[in-house]
Amino acid sequence: MKITIIGTGYVGLVTGACLAELGNDVFCLDLDENKIALLNSGGIPIHEPGLEEVVARNVAAGRLHFSTDVGASVAHGVLQFIAVGTPPDEDGSADLQYVLAAARNIGRHMTGFKVIVDKSTVPVGTADRVSAAVREEIAASGATASFSVVSNPEFLKEGAAVDDFMRPDRIVLGHDGSAEGLRARDLMKNLYKPFNRNHERTFWMDVRSAEFTKYAANAMLATRISFMNELANLADKVGVDIEAVRHGIGSDPRIGHSFLYAGAGYGGSCFPKDVQALERTACQFDQELLILRAVEAVNDRQKLVLGRKVVASFGEDLAGRHFAVWGLAFKPNTDDMREAPARVLLRELIDRGATVAVYDPVAMAEAKRVLSLDFNAAELARIEFAASSMGALEQADALIIVTEWKAFRSPDFDQIKARLKQAIVFDGRNLFEPEQMAANGIEYHGIGRSVLT
Ligand code: NAD
């Protein structure tokens, strides 16, 4: 099938590359000329395992194209995926300006029938606004093209995006039941047929329910994280090991093991903004979401937990102190630093006068870019970008771990001890066992692991 993807970011690039891998002929459009130039020169703008190979293979096969040409790109596909960003507006609601601009571009340039697929995460009712924007442009141009807007929220996880897209546990699709909607449904059925060979993974529903499903999923996952973080903070006070509790409750199939890890708070481009956007939708309908308000508040507080533990050990004034920080990306296997807990920790350490040496296996280039926006030149001078995890430790008063990269899981503890000025580890992801650290002669501060002995 001929497909156009509008927005070549995490979701758009992965969607475009994977749909090309299935044999479709895909145009990826973006307004960012640098990004398209990079892709056209064989580069990849994001770190995502396996993506580079899929892109290279499909470009070579002539099935995947990158373009900034709006007219040519819209003309190409019968399916027009909108995969642009929906960042939070000032009040936390989803800013739909990019989605609506993409919709208007489709309306302005379309000729024949188009299925407009909302892949961006958008609030309930957005499909109607997309339809209205497209209709306005068609009317202005005097054309008679018909179209249908379908909701197809994306559930891929950064760091495992290609795998998630190629092996989805579900495909959610909403159509409006009109004649055009039914035509759109048939085309989408065909597109996703390869994923439904073993068993049906597609859930068809009305458009508004499909839009809502994405928010419900992210809100549920964020709730589980904040729930465990809140219990972990209490566990620290009452002398309980939250890891033992996690096993104890996760083995109940009604609860399950996923997303029960206590830590330094959730970040990224999705959970924080989607929780906020759902709260805003609720406000607009006079329906306060008490649980989600608490989920957000708990997470904001959790991002401060590592800093608080450092202060509890070293005092409020950290001038003259030097810390090693392992992990900057908001989670492993990505270089994405949007809303990353490491940024909150670094702000606190720098504000309290400390110097830091930071290391991330993949996000160093992105960290340099992002931290140069977060900090002024004098502050940046107190942040050293280390060349290796062990290199970051030299003469540090303590090691602070913020992201659970696999490469951090089995370090050489003797080397850690030899390089640190004091053998102290603050572990924001509970990578190690307190007993193991005690046996290695390392003072260990996990999250919710202060068992009374
Ligand atoms: P992103 O910021 O990585 O990419 C968005 C891209 O859209 C950018 O390259 C931007 O230049 C481009 N763009 C903006 N306006 C455009 C226009 N009018 N025409 C062409 N290109 C345009 O965003 P992302 O992380 O891929 O997220 C996209 C959407 O998918 C968001 O709604 C997000 O909530 C949702 N989502 C993201 C993830 C994720 O893990 N990142 C997962 C599921 C859903």
Bound molecules: nicotinamide-adenine-dinucleotide
Just give the CATH class of the largest domain.
Answer: Alpha Beta
CATH architecture descriptor name of the largest domain: 3-Layer(aba) Sandwich
The structural class is alpha/beta
Number of domains: 2
Gyration radius, in Å: 24 Å
Tally of extended strands? 14
β content, as a range?
Answer: 5-15%
Q: Overall mean pLDDT score? A: 97
Q: List the total number of helices.
A: 18
Q: Which sequence of strands runs across the widest sheet?
A: 3-2-1-4-5-6
Helical fraction equals: 40-55%
Can you tell me the CATH topology of the largest domain? Rossmann fold
Low-pLDDT stretches: none
Ends distance: 64 Å
CATH superfamily of the largest domain: NAD(P)-binding Rossmann-like Domain
- Main sheet summary: 6 strands, parallel
Strand and helix layout:
Blueprint: E1 2-6, H1 10-21, E2 25-29, H2 33-40, H3 51-60, E3 64-67, H4 70-76, E4 79-82, H5 97-109, E5 114-118, H6 126-141, E6 147-151, H7 161-166, E7 171-174, H8 179-192, E8 202-205, H9 207-238, H10 242-250, H11 271-284, H12 290-302, H13 305-314, E9 322-326, H14 341-351, E10 355-359, H15 364-374, H16 377-380, E11 383-385, E12 398-401, H17 413-419, E13 424-427, H18 434-439, E14 443-445
Parallel strand pairs: 1-2, 1-4, 2-3, 4-5, 5-6, 7-8, 9-10, 9-12, 10-11, 12-13, 13-14
The protein binds nicotinamide-adenine-dinucleotide (NAD).
The site of nicotinamide-adenine-dinucleotide has 26 residues, from helix 1 and helix 5.
